């Protein structure tokens, strides 16, 4: 069997930087619980924390990092540009760094391909879109404030638009997308791989009330392996070649999600999870002023 030290596995980005295979997600983590969750994760061995300006908890992520005593340079930090800040990229990264109490982030993503007007969240700028935003993102690499830049929630349609624009001199190093066996997105994952864009899987455990946890294939597999369904889902992602960022604020679950070393799913088990028939998305685009999902990921 291949090496099964999954928690120390990394994926090398075009810059040469290595993103860990598993990190702590903080979407929907309440502010008052985020700092302790981050500290617990770092104490458990995690070296990667994912946050975003839109989550409203960057300051607490920074507090948790400092409280852990783990040196900043040993931790991968990802944060994201909020939709109403697309025309103010330099100010946005400064605001995030101030919140985090850090000099740089390892990865800065366009959170959504929607340049939303700050004065009206139901409206998109007439004179600006994510291609203009990416032009500004590329300039950040010379500032030392970000090590790598990427995108999130980009399907093939929008990636094609971006990559084919003459202003796109530097490809996104990462596309952070929803990835779990009920939203496996094989076409999009294959497209990113072909273009040299690494994928991060968010909502990798489905979501709180996920139908995944009633799926007999997953439940039988977990029982057979003597593992939790969550551990099997994380293994599915890592072994398929993307990093995973499970969210939890519970110390036991944070530690359980990290217990991935010394075992693996077989090719047959991976295929079983890849072929689950049910489909659902945790994150849609109906709340945005523009459509961003076009059903082109399968």
Task: Walk me through the topology.
Elements: E1 10-12, E2 18-20, E3 24-25, H1 31-44, E4 48-50, H2 58-68, E5 76-81, H3 89-100, E6 107-110, E7 116-117, E8 120-124, H4 130-140, E9 149-152, H5 156-163, E10 174-178, H6 186-195, E11 198-202, H7 216-225, H8 229-239, E12 243-244, H9 251-257, H10 267-274
Helix pairs in contact: 1-2, 2-3, 7-8
Which percent range fits the helix content? Answer: 25-40%
Sheet with most strands: strand arrangement:
3-4-5-6-9-10-11-12
Shape type: globular
Distance between the termini: 30 Å
Please state the CA-atom Rg, rounded to the nearest Å: 18 Å
Largest sheet: 8 strands, parallel
Following the backbone from N to C, one meets helices and strands in this order, namely: EEEHEHEHEEEHEHEHEHHEHH
- Counted by DSSP, the helix tally is 10
Structural class: alpha/beta
Total count of strands: 12
Percent in strands: 5-15%
Determine the mean pLDDT.
96
Which parts are unreliable, with pLDDT below 50 for 5 consecutive residues or more? Answer: none
The oligomeric state of the chains shown is single chain
Question: What would your notes on this structure say?
Answer:
This protein is an alpha/beta fold. The protein is 34% helix and 15% strand. The protein is built from 10 helices and 12 strands. The protein has helices spanning 31-44, 58-68, 89-100, 130-140, 156-163, 186-195, 216-225, 229-239, 251-257, 267-274, and strands at residues 10-12, 18-20, 24-25, 48-50, 76-81, 107-110, 116-117, 120-124, 149-152, 174-178, 198-202, 243-244. Strand 1 (10-12) and strand 2 (18-20) form a beta hairpin. The protein starts with 9 loop residues before the first strand and ends in a 24-residue tail after the last helix.
């Amino acid at each position: 069997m291949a090496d099964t030290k999954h928690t120390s596995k990394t994926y090398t980005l075009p810059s040469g930087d290595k993103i860990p295979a598993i990190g702590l997600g903080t979407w929907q983590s309440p502010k008052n619980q985020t700092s302790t969750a981050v500290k617990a994760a770092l104490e458990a061995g995690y070296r990667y924390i994912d946050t975003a300006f839109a989550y409203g908890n960057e300051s607490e992520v920074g507090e948790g990092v400092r409280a852990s005593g783990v040196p900043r340079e040993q931790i991968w930090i990802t944060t994201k540009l909020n939709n109403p800040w697309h025309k103010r990229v330099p100010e946005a990264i400064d605001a995030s760094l101030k919140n985090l109490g850090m000099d740089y982030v390892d990865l800065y993503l366009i959170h959504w391909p929607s340049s939303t007007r700050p004065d009206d969240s139901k409206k998109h700028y007439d004179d600006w879109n994510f291609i203009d935003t990416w032009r500004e993102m590329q300039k950040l690499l010379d500032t030392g404030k970000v090590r790598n830049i990427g995108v999130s929630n980009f399907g093939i349609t929008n990636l094609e638009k971006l990559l084919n624009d003459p202003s796109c001199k530097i490809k996104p190093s990462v596309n952070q997308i929803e990835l779990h066996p009920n939203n496996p997105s094989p076409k999009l994952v294959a497209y990113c791989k072909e273009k040299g864009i690494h994928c991060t899987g968010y909502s990798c455990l489905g979501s709180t009330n996920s139908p995944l946890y009633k799926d007999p294939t997953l439940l039988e597999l977990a029982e057979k392996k003597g593992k939790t369904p969550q551990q099997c889902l994380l293994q599915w992602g890592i072994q398929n070649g993307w990093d995973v960022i499970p969210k939890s604020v519970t110390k036991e679950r944070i530690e359980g999600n990290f217990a991935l070393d010394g075992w693996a799913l077989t090719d047959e088990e991976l295929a079983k999870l890849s072929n689950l028939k049910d489909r659902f998305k945790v994150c849609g685009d109906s709340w945005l002023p523009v459509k961003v999902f076009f059903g082109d990921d399968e």
